[in-house]
Design a protein that fits this description.
single chain; 328 residues; mainly alpha; 0% strand; globular
């Protein structure tokens, strides 16, 4: 019951704003132009600030290189597995969306709190450090996924074009600024300073402003997602949704948790982080990214909603099984 209540408390704050946005659009409180502008604001401003917040105070000195290497390598493996899966998808604008759905999780928003619940405060701290490696990787691969299929038949994929999109992507800029600031703060701390104390005691307006803007990103993105959501699209997209949700919520966590166990990453802390990394639903930011990069954002939105809703059940099963097996 404890795990069921936790998963409900983790998932419902995602689903309820979506329902609010859906309701407000149905009563014409929102107009399409407003939703488009909000989506652009979320993608270009708020989510980069959220990513910056998640990274700029990370303690990179505590990185377990072997564990982070396994997590990052697994994400890369998922990217290439996803490429095989989407090879059978006829619509090019859906290929990149389904590809990013194969490896990208809602790790920053749901995953880190989930890891903390499963493994305690030590797991939460370790999960935040893992985010310093996995969050940039998620976003770089997402840009690549949404770019490589945006070509006509026979048209060459230019590496320079992909690199430009990566460098110019607001999410990548947020990640780069967060990591750069993190390294600068670590250097100051190593010289005898205490950046955390300075920010929290003397310049409190800085973290407060960053936190308030970062906290706005997810709820606004979810409300916009709900406003653009169409139930009638489920009938047309059901095959893509079945493939994406089954892969993300069942096949991926079962496969990589099994590999992790046999490789020796089987402690309560490590399993908690890996569940958070591989079994959580698709990141909300995948929708505004798909829209801004002119891919099938309707499918991206459907995948976010359905993986979020169904993960309440899949997470409960995964957590229960791992508890029975003594991994949690």
């Amino acid at each position: 019951m404890e795990h069921l209540l936790f998963t409900m408390n983790a998932i419902l704050p995602i689903l309820l704003p979506v329902l609010l946005g859906y309701f407000l659009r149905r009563i014409n409180f929102f107009k399409d132009d407003f939703l488009v502008l909000c989506n652009k604001f979320v993608f270009n401003v708020l989510i980069p600030i959220l990513l910056f917040k998640n990274l700029y105070l990370a303690n990179l000195n505590e990185i377990d290189l072997a564990f982070v290497g396994f997590a990052s390598g697994s994400i890369l493996a998922l990217f290439f597995i996803g490429m095989i899966v989407v090879a059978f998808v006829p619509d090019k604008k859906q290929k990149g969306v389904m590809l990013q759905a194969s490896f990208r999780s809602n790790y920053a928003i749901i995953g880190i709190p989930l890891a903390t619940m499963l493994g305690g405060e030590e797991a939460g701290a370790a999960a935040s450090v893992v985010a310093a490696a996995t969050v940039p990787l998620f976003n770089i691969l997402a840009v690549i996924a949404l770019t490589i299929y945006d070509k006509e038949d026979g048209e060459k994929i230019l590496i320079s074009s992909i690199l430009k999109k990566i460098v110019r992507n607001p999410l990548i800029i947020g990640v780069f600024c967060g990591l750069s600031t993190c390294f600068i703060f670590m250097g100051i701390d190593n010289l005898g300073g205490n950046v955390n104390a300075f920010l929290n005691n003397d310049l409190t307006f800085v973290p407060k402003t960053i936190n308030s803007l970062a906290n706005l990103a997810t709820p606004l993105a979810l409300i916009v997602l709900g406003g653009r959501f169409e139930f009638k699209a489920v009938k047309r997209l059901w095959k893509q949704l079945v493939v994406s949700t089954t892969l993300k919520l069942a096949i991926v966590p079962a496969f990589f948790l099994t590999i992790a166990y046999f490789l020796g990453f089987d402690s309560k802390i490590e399993f908690g982080i890996l569940i958070a990394l591989f079994a959580t639903p698709i990141a909300v930011s995948s929708v505004p990214m798909a829209m801004q990069m002119k891919q099938d954002d309707e499918l991206a939105g459907q995948i976010v909603v359905w993986t979020s809703a169904l993960s309440a059940f899949s997470l409960f099963v995964i957590i229960l099984l791992c508890s029975i097996l003594g991994r949690l």
